[in-house]
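Weekly structure sync, notes
Attendees: PL (lead), two postdocs, one rotation student
Agenda item 3: pending single-chain targets
PL asked that the sequence for the first pending target be pasted directly into the notes so everyone works from the same version. It is reproduced below exactly as submitted, 211 residues in total.
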Amino acid sequence: MKLIQRPLYTERVIPFINKQVIKVLTGQRRVGKSYVMLQLMEHIRNTDQNANIVYINMELDNYIHIKTHVDLSAYIEDKFVEGKNNYFFIDEVQEVQEFERTLRSLLAKGICDIYCTGSNANMLSGELATYLSGRYLVFNIHSLSYQEFLQFHQLENKFESLVLYLRYGGMPFLSNIGLQDDLPYEYLRNVYSTILLKDVVARRIFGMFHF
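Predicted structure, written out during the meeting:
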């Protein structure tokens, strides 16, 4: 899988590699949080020959059994290697109930460098402060800037390209669909429907009935 680099974000995170603080990548759905995380993992592999990377993607069936912090702690218990530089990456961490208990425990033990991603609908800054007791850094990931849009779609910087950017926006996955016909609009409608129903409406309903 070819990763198109997004140094705007990776270069902000890289100075904090191996610092004892939890690195949180958050943002709207489908803006590329997972790919920024993969790029950070790639950077670590290229710069640290002694790296042991433990990676969990909660959207994959491989990890469907991890539902609570107890399951998460049990799964990673034997994954860290003594004498190695251990790194723990977990994608969509909010899918694990009380995930913060595992992350705080790992941080307290100092056995690995911790990174996680999560939708900002589920990981607002005030909630993170409660979950992680202040020992974290948030890196907000956004849709593509205009310069990134040009790079992703292999376009020249000209008026027609700006029109396309203003028309379709900067969702990264559009580079796999193309900017012709109605395909981009169909994809964008589905993304925004998901955001509205799963993030806005569901969060509002949950808030009304959560005591």
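Discussion points:
- The mean pLDDT is 89.
- The chain has nine helices and five strands.
Action: rotation student to compare against the earlier draft before next sync.
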